[in-house]
Specification:
Structural class: alpha/beta
CATH superfamily: NAD(P)-binding Rossmann-like Domain
Number of helices: 9
Number of domains: 1
Strand order of the largest sheet: 1-2-7
Low-confidence stretches: none
Distance between the termini: 39 Å
Mean pLDDT: 88
Shape: globular
Amino acid sequence: MHLGRITTTQDRKANRRYASNVDGTRKLLELSRKYGVKQMVILSTYFVYGASAYNPALLDEEAPLKASVLDKNLIDMVELENLAHIHMFQYPELHITILRPANIVGPHTQNGLSLQLSREATPYLLGFNPMMQFVQVEDMADAVIASFKGNKPGIYNVAAEDWAGYQDALRMAGCGMIPVPSIPPGLTNLIADLSPKVGLNAFPRYLVPYMKYPVVIDGSKFTETFGWQPKYNIEQALAYYRDKKQFKRAG
C-alpha cells in the first residue's frame, strides 16, 4: 500500500515535495515490478480535479485532472497519479487501485483542511461558501482495507453522500471565522503567501481555489464496487474538532 504523500503543509519547498512524491513513487513502482508485487493500493486525493467555477455538480472518475494547470503547487499530486495510471495499464499484473478521497478528517490527520478545522479561528473568503465533502479517518481506513480485500483495479473516488458549505463546516467544527477579502484575487494569494512569514500560517495558497469553488466528487462507483459505507456522517466527523476545542477550553 502506498499511502504516504508529502503535502504543501508539511513542506513548502516544491522541489523537495516533487522528489518525495513523484520520484519516490516512480522508484516504488519500479521495485514493485522487479520483486513481483501482485497488488497495490495507491492513495491519491480529490484535489487532483482542481477547483474551478466550471466544474460540474458532481465529478466522476472520468473528469479531467486540472489541478496542475490551475495551481503549480499541486503538480506533484497530479504527476504522482499519472505515474500510477500509466503503470496500471502498462503492467496489469500489479493490480493497481487508485483512491481519490475527499478531505480526510479526524484524529491525527495532518492535511491542509484538517489543520484549518483544528484552529480556534479559521479564515474564509468573503462571498464564497463552496460545498465540501469529508471522510472520517476511520472510514478512510475501512475504504483502504475494502479496496485491498476486493482487489478490483481501477480509479475510485471515495466520498460519503453528504456535503456542507465551507462556512457551515467551520461552524460544525467549532471554529471562529476570520473573513478574508476575495477580490482582487491577487490580494488573497498575497495574504496566503505572507502569513507564514509573520507567524500566522493562515492557510496554504493551494487551498484558496477550494475555498472559492466547489469540488464535489461522485463516490458511487467505489460504494457499489466494494460495498463500503461510512460510519460517520459529516456532522459526526467534524464534531471531533469541536469537542477537542471545548475540552481544551474547559481544561
